[in-house]
Amino acid sequence: xxxxxxxxxxxxxxxxxxxxxxxxxxxxxxxxxxxxxxxxxxxxxxxxxxxxxxxxxxxxxxxxxxxxxxxxxxxxxxxxxxxxxxxxxxxxxxxxxxxxxxxxxxxxxxxxxxxxxxxxxxxxxxxxxxxxxxxxxxxxxxxxxxxxxxxxxxxxxxxxxxxxxxxxxxxxxxxxxxxxxxxxxxxxxxxxxxxxxxxxxxxxxxxxxxxxxxxxxxxxxxxxxxxxxxxxxxxxxxxxxxxxxxxxxxxxxxxxxxxxxxxxxxxxxxxxxx
Length: 274
Hints:
Layout: H1 17-46, H2 60-138, H3 159-169, E1 174-175, E2 184-185, H4 187-196, H5 206-209, E3 214-216, E4 226-231, E5 234-243, E6 246-250, E7 257-261, E8 269-272
Parallel strand pairs: 1-2
Antiparallel strand pairs: 3-8, 4-5, 4-8, 5-6, 6-7
């Protein structure tokens, strides 16, 4: 044994041939890769670069979402259009309602004025009729026929006067059942024709004439009241009160149109139409 065998050597251990060969191979591979990359880089630098972008494929779910979005957009547009139409209709209806209200108010005002004028006219006519009746009741002339009382003289004008004047003009005419003038009458046709002179349209028959106007008592008669004999609504004869307890009527075939005294043939009732 050498006398230096126990002293550690300071020399680096030798690398094995296998490790050296492996490292050489790795280094060579790296250098080769770098060379290839450099060559590729040079080639790429010489040619333009083009990039292809792949568009996504429309799947069933995506198509459904697009359709739903389109439907929602259409519904929103329809909603806005419908709302605009409703607003326009509401505005038009409000304008029309305002116009109708103005027309109704104008019509109501006209009707109120017409009613007031009619009321005033009616009051004036009632006052005139009252004056006429007073005049007729206080004026008298000699009677004729079977009458035992004096006859009232009718004034030249006025509604009641027109009725009485017409009746007196028919004195002496014949009585014929169903006749309506000008020279022959029955009781109801004479009364109907007389009141037509005052603008009053009466029914043709005595039964209906007894239901017209206002019922008055026979103790409170005024000139121009219609007298009836029999029940109200079933009267069989009519005449007209002319004042002083007398009435004028188309009595019967034997008398014709005459003036008679109520005391000899009291009426069942009376109605007032003037």
